[in-house]
Amino acid sequence: MRRAAVALVAIAALAGCNGDDPPEGIHSPEGVMIRDWLMAVEHYDFSHAADFFAPGAIIDQGGPPYRLRTRRAARLFNATLPCHADLIGLSDEGSKVLALFRLRPGPGGDCTGKARVRYTIEDGQFTEWRQLPGGRSKPV
Hints:
The chain is an alpha+beta fold. Helix content is 29%, strand content 34%. Strand 5 (112-122) and strand 6 (125-131) form a beta hairpin. The longest helix has 14 residues, at 29-42.
């Protein structure tokens, strides 16, 4: 009986279960896609990370929006993200999804805080990536 309980705890730990329900949307196809993209960035596989962006994807990080017109531009965008992040929430907004991230240290330094990004996803690729203002601490 004790072995079965230990096995269940181990399985729950491996699955990331801490007794709470996972945040809504995390396991949706969009959530899986966003987590896969985050893993590519975290492993410095910027070529794979670029695969998640449609040609001409719009990027808006609070300045003037711009387009990732080439694959090279998509790789560069991913390579210059200063923070690593964990997806902690996802809201379905119809044709868009709003993702909430907990920031972690990355190539740009000691990142802290949270960030929100609104995505438009078409045919398995980001066509719009718009970071919303507030709720973010910049790298120090």
